[in-house]
Amino acid sequence: MKREDARSKFAEILSGEESVLELDRAALLIAAEDYPHLEVAHYLDKIDSLAEAAARSEIHHVDPVTAIQRLSDLLFNELGFEGNLLDYFDARNSFLSEVIDRRLGIPITLSVLFIEVGRRLGLKISGVGLPGHFVVKYMDQSSEAFWDPFNGGRPLDEDGCRSLIDRMYNGSLEFKPSFLDPLPKKQILSRMLQNLKGIYVRAKDHHKTLGVIDRLLLINPGALTEIRDRGLVNFALKNYNIARIDLEQYLQLSPDAEDAAATRERIKQLRQRQAQFN
To answer: Rounded CA gap, 28 and 22, in Å?
Structure first.
């Protein structure tokens, strides 16, 4: 699949209603921009096969929480899917196709796999974007339960989620009940892309960073930080006219931003550089 085809199909999926958005297909289309020979249907079949394996364990004859625990045991114990502790920032951890092939991932990609295998089994598993971590949850009218795919699929309760956040932030972050709210699928995709963006920014890969920002703006066209960052990346790529347009738009929409002065200075530099080529 050509990169532009993957982008077009990703945009098409995003244009639909949240209720019909295919999270697994959208995640695979994110990977397809980096892997032009990736066959989305092939990996969807692999997820189908994982669900079929889980179904053979009589998962349909127990209550949902027990069924999800059995699915967790299958994926993270029997089949060996695990968090990549040794090389967390390897970009491959952010691509669902690579996670399926290598059985290694980061919290959000392992969670997406868990959610999508569960969906095929009729299990309503949601993603939960804790600060600095990602888990999944099941809830009904009277209770809720959580699992941590990155750490062996271990079960958690609310106190366990609180403890996880306390450890990550050394107690400096005040817990909010909203941390445990299920994330819409488009926000899950956005968080996946934000992780990938961070990897490419650290690697100073401007072209790939720009591609991620463009997809983030497909999800949220009004995201000011992404408009600003697109301008900055285009500046680094010497696309001065495009960069100026983005930075001027950012400043127009957010004139009191903390970085407003720095942005004005960057725009001044852009105008000077453009003048040199006129």
So the answer is: 10
